[in-house]
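SECTION: protein entry
WANTED: fold as C-alpha cells:
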Amino acid sequence: MKMLLVAAGGAVGSMARYQIGAWVLARTETWSFPLGTFIVNVLGCLIAGVLIGVAEYRAFLTLELRLLLFTGFLGGFTTFSAFGVETVALIERNDWGVATAYVVASVVCGIAALFGALKLGALAAA
C-alpha cells in the first residue's frame, strides 16, 4: 500500500511538473533563464512549507499522507522542496554552519557530478 501511495503521488507530481514546465516554456522560449524549473522548484518549496506549517497546528499528516504528498507528489514534482525543507530545519535549529555547508556542497557537488558524468558519457560514447 505504501508503494502505491508513493507511486500515485509521484505520477501526479511528475505530470504537474511537465504541464507547468511546458506552459511556461511556451511563453518564454526566447529566455535564457530556465523559468519553468525555477517556478516548479519555488512552488514545491511553497507547497512543502504550507503543509508543514499547517501540520504544526493540525495533526493531519499521517504516515500515508506524508508518503503520498512529500515522497510521492513533491518527489515527482521536485526534489528541491526536500532540499529546502532540510535546509530550513537546520537553520531553525540554529545550525548555520551545517546549513551553509549543505547548500554549498549540494550545489557545487551536484553540478560537478553532472559535469563529470557528462564528460565520462562523452568519452564512453566516442
The radius of gyration is 17 Å. The first helix runs from residue 2 to 27. The CA atoms of residues 92 and 99 lie 10 Å apart. DSSP finds five helices and no strands in the chain.
